[in-house]
Amino acid sequence: MQDAITAEYSGPPKLNYLNNGFTLKSWLLTKDHKRIAIMYLITVSLFFMAGGLYASAIRLELLTPASDLLQTGTYNKVFTQHGILMIFFFLIPSIPAVLGNFILPIMIGAKDLALPRINLLSLYIYWVGGAFTVWALLQGGVDTGWTFYTPYSTTFSNTYVMAVGLGIFINGFSSILTGLNFIVTVHTMRAPGMTWFRLPLFVWAQYATSLVMILGTPVIAITVLLLAIERFARVGIFDPTIGGDPILFQHMFWFYSHPAVYIMILPGMGVISELISNFSRKKIFGYEFIAFSSIAIAVFGFLVWGHHMFVSGQSVYAGLVFSFLTMVVAVPSAIKMFNWTATMYKGSISYDTPMLYGIGFMGLFLIGGLTGLFLGAIGLTVHLTDTYFVVAHFHYVMVGGQVIAYLGGIHYWWPKMTGKMYSEFWGKISAMLVFVGFNLTFFPQFILGYMGMPRRYSYPPEFQVLNIFSTAGASVLGVGLILPLIYLTQSLISGKAAGDNPWMLPGLEWRTSSPPPTENFDVMPVVTWEAYEFGEESGLDLEGARANESVRTV
Amino acid sequence: MQTNSWVPLFPEQASTFAWQVDLLYLYLIVISVAFTIPIVVAVFLFALKYREKEKFASGAEIHGSMVLEAGWSFLPFVISMTIFLGGAVVYYNQYKMPEDAMQVYVVGKQWMWKIQHETGQREINELHIPVNRKVKLTMTTEDALHDFSIPAFRTKADVVPGRYTYLWFEANKPGKYHLFCAEYCGLNHSGMGGYVYVMEQSDFDNWLEGNVSGQTPVEQGRDLFENKLGCASCHAGGPQQRGAKLEGIYGKDVHLVGGGTVTANDEYIRNSILNPGSQVVEGFQPIMPTFKGQVTEEQLVSLVAYIKSLSGITGSTSTSQPASNSAANSGSNARTNSNTMTPRRADRGQGNTPGSNPNAPGPANR
User: Fold this and answer.
1) How far is CA B116 from CA A292, B82, B101, B125, in A?
2) What is the pLDDT of residue B238?
3) Backbone angles phi, psi at A268, to 5 degrees
4) Rounded to an integer, what is the distance from CA A401 to the centroid of its chain?
5) pLDDT above 90 (res B322)
6) CA dihedral sign, ordered B17, B23, B27, B30
7) Do B305 and B224 touch, CB atoms closer than 8 A?
8) Domains B102-210 and B217-365 share a fold
9) What is the reported pTM?
10) CB within 8 A of A421, min separation 6: which ones?
């Protein structure tokens, strides 16, 4: 790795955050947000692969109507564990803890997060929570569904419910600390001249996400605690036979888990704002509207949890109010969609891999968002709830939204994080495979859902054709997701040096070296330009860059 | 259920709700397409037209437009409100329980549906109903949550332990339709289902005759009340009765020890059998023992049916439909009782079981 860098500089190798220490201790006891982000990157990737293996098992089992590949009990554990790993240990930390951790302080011109030790602590908590959960899964796993609905989870399931619950409980503190750290950092660590309305929209999105994290996550912690109290002390909280109310659990669970859905999409929207604007080389359309729509989503996100419970025993009035509020949340999402589209108008658009992910996101999130309206329309959702329509919808948002944005962000900031360029050719191939494979996997599930195929089910024979499409799509998607693992790793070994600013962009992260030094900037930056400023004021040496274009790998 | 096309797109329409739900679905598809096409066309058009002409050239200096922002905030809001209203209307129809429906009792159990008709017939994982007649299910479960789902009828409802939930529909096409459990309930969740058979009235009558078995719920309840559980020794009336008189009580307001009032409905009766100490009627001592663990959910359903019959009510009509003051009557033996459906929260703070709160936000509304 050092050799490649040496080739760029005639002097001794420049010290950066990667080569200023090689011992294990220099990693495990680091306070550098960039090293912590890299350790998060490796860990969430492992969890993503584990969750992906479970997903493959699910799709293979669903190739045929009968329970043949997996026995029923195993199948129940597999979909439960797929959900738990993907949601709590991949999706929630993915963009905030990896990309946010790495890039947010640099974007605002800070040397580090405001609380570097807390940042390391949150990584350790994530590891402990993750290790505990993995241990519980290896011991025998859990079969309650990721939703842990009572009284099944408290009374009837003979699996490791409390152990997994404890793993999630521990992990929650990691989210809370990361959110807290981001909020403090954005308030106190901005470089001179970096006013609130000069912040990149990725920072706004992270800020909104952090609000949800610190306000919502304690509720899931309380819920798990109450579950434990009921299970061990037999105090009636959720169990009707000892005076509890099972619906109460659903209220508390969704009071966290619906906002958590926004933890899983807002950061993705932030990445997409960066990609669309920067690769159109044009100021984002309606900056303030996108910024405030993130905050609006975060606030309204707390008021719509009841739309998960339309048929579960909630009063009709509650149902109507939640349906109404759900419709209102559609508006800020629509505003973002329109603004992204308008940003491309009269731009100067280049189609590097990150931009392909950006455009892919717009297509998939459009479908994910619109099908959310189907599920918010209360009379329709009585038929649709608990079917594959719901499964398809949230995969369009979670995978089509957050995972695509995460991949786009990884490709976008990879040259900054590693100093290396990956293969554009394979990047584009992979982006297209992911897009096609994803649609083939999940679009048929909308139809299956309307046909009435329930979730968490082995199905009657007439549903088989669409399930075969879905499994075929999942294979394509799988290939599309394995490719980056190969070519990104390969780029570390033999990738061309990226240079400090391979895309000639104005953001602060592109005004320091790649990889950045430990302190992020050699000289404290002073910001005199607006966000996404591509004109003269940006001070970028575009002529020089054009002359030196051979730096880029195409 | 099975349609003829190779890849089925729509489930069969077999209830009076089906066309409403399908119409709403089509409306949403139209809206979605109307949103998707302009955005996709714009993205493709911009993507082609505004490709970078020169490496690193800047795009135009456009920062935003108040008019456009206002327009594309307002328009989605208006459209989403039309969707909300459409959904609310369809939902209201599904939720408003009819008063003249045929009653069926459903108890969910890991992993089967146990069903009993008013005439006493029992069936498991199958439900036989006549076409063009309103059917109302009164449901509960012995264990975990379940969900009674019939896609061809476009309706479903969760079945919750410790509560009664209600579901109604009117099938309008004879046939055999899937019945699923749609709420995950453990190991054999996907095996918990069967079929709903919608039959012509004459076929249904034949089916009923061919299945004469046992007692009706009311008869079974009387048997439990008078003999097996011995309720009658305290509740049968007479000069020194230790328990409240139950004749005519159903649907009335009951004054409780310690103040407060509760409407004597299904939930209240059920709760009084299981947690007698939680809502004691004024003028009586809290001496009744609990029957928790001694009666099954099915026996409870029968007891409730019998106690209702003491008030001249044969059906199990919903007791907590808000905004409705109409009578809880049904069938041939109707008797008007205007208190039954009055929404009240008078029981607040009286005991802590979910069943103790007949007007709680609950599935009783469906």
Assistant:
1) 56, 41, 15, 11
2) 62
3) -65, -40
4) 8
5) no
6) positive
7) no
8) no
9) 0.85
10) A414, A415, A491, A495, A496, A497, A498, A502, A552, A553
Q: What is the pLDDT of residues A115-159, one digit of tens each?
A: 999 999 999 999 999 999 999 999 989 999 999 998 898 888 888
Q: What is the mean pLDDT of chain B?
A: 80
Q: What does the angle CA A179 – CA A399 – CA B43 come to, to the nearest 5 degrees?
A: 105
pLDDT value at B355 more than 80 = no
Instruction: Find, among A281, A190, A195, the residue nearest to A528 by Cα.
Output: A195
- How far from A503 is each of A279, A412, A531, B3, B163, CA to CA, in Å? 8, 9, 16, 54, 62
Does residue B349 have a pLDDT over 80?
A: no
Nearest to A286 among B2, B64, B163 (CB): B64
Phi-psi region of B256 (alpha: psi -120 to 50; beta: other; left: phi over 0): beta
Residue B337 has pLDDT above 50, yes or no: no
Beta bridge pairs of residue B51: A349
List chain A domain ranges.
2-551
Phi/psi for A421 (5° steps) reads -100, 140
Q: Is the dihedral of CA A32, A37, A42, A47 positive or negative?
A: positive
What number is the ipTM of this complex?
0.90
Q: Nearest to residue A76, comparing CAs of B106, B190, B302?
A: B190
The reply to whether B62 touches chain A by the CB within 8 Å rule is: yes
Residues of B in contact with A533 (CB under 8 A): none
List CB contacts (< 8 A) between B33 and chain A: none
User: Among partner residues B68, B77, B178, which is closest to A342 by beta-carbon distance?
Assistant: B68
Domain-wise residue ranges, chain B: 102-210, 217-365
Query: Given this model, what pLDDT does residue B239 score?
Result: 58
Q: Give per-residue pLDDT as tens, A263-272.
A: 999 999 999 9
Put simply, whether A450 touches B (Cβ < 8 Å) is yes
Percent of chain B with pLDDT over 70: 81
CATH topology of domain A2-551: Cytochrome C Oxidase; Chain A (1.20.210)
Residue A430 in tokens = 């992979």
Q: Which CATH class is domain B217-365?
A: mainly alpha
